[in-house]
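Workshop exercise sheet. Pairs work together: one partner reads the sequence aloud, the other fills in the structure field after running the prediction. Swap roles for the next sheet.
Pair: D.N. / O.F.
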Amino acid sequence: MKLILLLIFIFTFYFYQGQSKKDIINVEKTENPIQKKYSGKIVFLSQNIATENLRDSDILNSAIFQENGDLGIHAFFDNSLVNYLHQLEPLLSVDELLKKGNYQFSFYVDGKLIYQENLNTGAGTSDHKKFKTSLRIPLLSSKNEDSWGRYLWMRFYMAHNGIDALTAGNHILKIEIRPYINTSTIQTGSVIAEGQINLTVPAQNTTEQQIAIQPIQSNSGWNISQERINTESIRTLNKKIAENRFKNITGIVIIKEGKLLLEEYFNGSGRDSLQDTRSVGKSFSSALMGIAIKEGYLKSENQKLSEFYDLKLFKNYSPQKDNVTIKSLLTMSSGFDGNDENYESPGNEENMYPTENWVKFTLDLPMTENPIGKNWSYFTAGVVVSGDILDKTVPQGLKNYADQKLFQPLGITNYKWQFTPQQKPSLAGGLRMKALDFAKFGQLYQNNGVWSGKILLSKEWIQKSFTNYFTDNPDFEGYGYLFWKKVYTVGNKSYEAFQSSGNGGNKIIIFTQIPVVIVITAQAYNKPYAHQQSEKIVQDYLLPALKMSNE
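Structure field:
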């Protein structure tokens, strides 16, 4: 018996060893002479040319780099991606390989690795990854070609220091492509294509007016801080914004110890501009919920949906839905089948906006099997429901209540809500106001809920809001009651903060251990670098400027 088992093992081992050396799928025939010549290479082009029409004269060895120009690559392989993945994991089926693997891109500037990304497995079509041995992707497109390649480039260039590596002058940009597969660990194959190009980056002209720190004008509504700030750090930042090396930034405000220390505007924005900060408005739902509880219109955040809605009247009823709490809506852990980060999720916010009733859309959703309050997923529709609960509960409705209990006490008179189809304020986001007024909201939290001697929010509510309820989530640093936790590091010091955050790179940042509030307004909507560049501005320029003022 043992001998038979040993023979079976030996046969199976050598069978799969042999299989691993064979292709799992037959690929297209390589007949194009250019493709044969450049197999294993990446070539750079300044225009979109089909592989069959490509000529040697089209290939660039050097180019003048223009952000609004055109630059793309053709990569030529000896095999298809799925066959490369099969070599890494010979026991997986084709579908399993495509679900777990894709290309890995490495970007080098002047011989230094700047950025490496394991491409999301959803990028590219399965047929292409099964059969094709060439790959064309645009990196820069004057026609804004829709491609995962352009977003890959944006992540390298804007979010991961490519723009800082490609300073004015001459550089060598090199790209390598490997296959990778993520099973229990990530396995990476050998380089399957590589290529480089000499790029000349033109110098940009900036004026002293663009670089200089903007003086704080009178009538700001704030006391002006007399503290010193590291002017060189701010001038360097202003220069990068003027050079468009930080993109679509419209405003930066710093409040220190309750006084206005820095107020800067860019790209046609100004003090009176109503900034569209998108999901920053979600944090206002948290504040208004805390005010309503303090005043007794709601018992607590532990109240359940069943106290406000007859959930049996909505689709996909289950007893679990009755037990969804306000707290689980505020912490994005309600258990509804909704995830804005997954386009296939039934509760994705993009499915909500075209409907006639956003609250009904949300309450109609099925529940997942996740326990309420335990599993986090970004769920805008749940915040809409929290706003509807407030509107049903507080006197004269949410719009009047917010104005009387929050905005008027803070001296905020000029603002615009986004409204639901029922013309109720939407707490999903879209609340517009001046950067200085967003700073007032942040300072209210810095003041432990007190403004001009009056308690607007309880200190206990702020402590709950600034508690991280998801300490073991690897995808972010933490989440409270519609506030994100973020820790910034400058030198050997760490600075904890909780922040309101919105599409485009918009931030209200409230530090918990230093008396500082920072507001950044921006319009880099739907750009993959939007949040990273705002965080980089804070960590590399604004906090060091403050750090110097403390020394």
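Discussion prompt: The CA atoms of residues 16 and 91 lie 8 Å apart. What would you look at next?
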